[in-house]
């Protein structure tokens, strides 16, 4: 059973998160402060994820986030502080998500995110881009979500990798690449892979209003303009849900 670390000083809210997580089949370890979280992590770091309150009695500025990241935990941040400064500070760190405590639905959102992280372990993603830096950036975001990542530097290499790795369920491809552009790649992929089994997201830094239509007509599930945020709320994951039978993200 997957375990989740919950660090929350509000007893009522902590118990609610614990209850909902257990209802979704997750084990929980819950504490009320950073000192107790540190004591737990000194004994065990085998957690699916840590769900952290930003403002704790002994760590009022998100220090518990750095503690958990230093122990190589995936992190979801919950906070009642919704200032733009705090939001930027949190999202500048390699966290999974930042969820405001602004309604009763936030706990359900956390549990759905936790389940998605667990399911992501069964999925593989292929990133196709001739830019090593872009591939590294996207790969880091996806690996943070427990997804196994493959990389290809052009369309021809991507087709070869798809034939060798049948477990790939999502392809993220740039448009402008040598040998074969992204739209041509999508056409080739769709000759052998239906949209229900393999999702495709097109990317481009070109400001061409026709690219969205061209990618979708070729068989892509969605198209995103670069650059996108480090943590995608709509990006990369949620866009492919309607057509692909993958329980991946965020």
Question: Could you characterize what this model shows?
Answer:
With 250 residues, this protein is α/β, with parallel strands linked by helices. It has 2 domains: 116 residues, Response regulator (Rossmann fold, 3-Layer(aba) Sandwich); 120 residues, Response regulator (Rossmann fold), CATH 3.40.50. Helix content is 38%, strand content 20%. The chain has 9 helices and 10 strands. The strands form 2 sheets. A 5-stranded parallel β-sheet has the order 2-1-3-4-5, sandwiched between helices. Strand 1, helix 1 and strand 2 form a beta-alpha-beta unit. Helix 1 crosses helix 5, helix 2 packs parallel to helix 3 and helix 7 packs parallel to helix 8. The chain starts with a strand and ends in a 25-residue tail after the last strand. 37% of the residues are buried. The C terminus is likely disordered.
Which key terms come to mind for this protein?
CheY-like_superfamily, five-stranded parallel β-sheet, 10 strands, Response regulator, alpha/beta, 2 domains, 250 residues, elongated, Sig_transdc_resp-reg_receiver, Rossmann fold
Chart the SSEs and their pairings.
Layout: E1 3-7, H1 11-23, E2 27-31, H2 34-43, E3 49-53, H3 63-70, E4 75-79, H4 84-91, E5 97-100, H5 105-120, E6 124-128, H6 132-143, E7 148-152, H7 155-164, E8 168-174, H8 182-190, E9 199-204, H9 211-218, E10 222-225
Parallel strand pairs: 1-2, 1-3, 3-4, 4-5, 6-7, 6-8, 8-9, 9-10
Helix pairs in contact: 1-5, 2-3, 7-8
């Amino acid at each position: 059973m997957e375990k989740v670390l919950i660090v929350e000083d509000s007893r009522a809210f902590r118990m609610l998160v614990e209850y909902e997580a257990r209802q979704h089949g997750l084990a929980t370890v819950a504490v009320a402060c950073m000192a107790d979280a540190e004591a737990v992590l000194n004994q065990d770091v085998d957690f699916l994820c840590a769900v952290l309150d930003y403002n704790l009695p002994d760590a009022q500025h998100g220090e518990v986030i750095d503690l958990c990241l230093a122990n190589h935990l995936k992190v979801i941040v919950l906070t009642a502080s919704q200032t733009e400064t705090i939001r930027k500070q949190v999202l500048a760190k390699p966290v999974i998500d930042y969820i405001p405590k602004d309604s009763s639905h936030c706990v359900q959102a956390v549990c759905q995110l936790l389940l998605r992280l667990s399911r992501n372990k069964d999925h593989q993603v292929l990133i196709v881009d001739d830019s090593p830096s872009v591939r590294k950036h996207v790969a880091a975001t996806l690996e943070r979500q427990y997804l196994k990542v493959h990389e290809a530097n052009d369309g021809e290499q991507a087709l070869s990798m798809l034939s060798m790795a049948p477990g790939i369920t999502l392809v993220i491809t740039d448009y402008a690449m040598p040998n074969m552009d992204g739209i041509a790649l999508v056409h080739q992929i769709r000759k052998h892979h239906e949209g229900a089994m393999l999702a495709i997201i097109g990317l481009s830094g070109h400001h061409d209003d026709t690219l969205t239509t061209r990618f979708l007509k070729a068989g892509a599930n969605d198209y995103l303009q670069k650059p996108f945020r480090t943590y995608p709320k709509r990006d990369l994951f949620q866009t492919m849900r309607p057509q692909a039978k993958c329980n991946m993200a965020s």
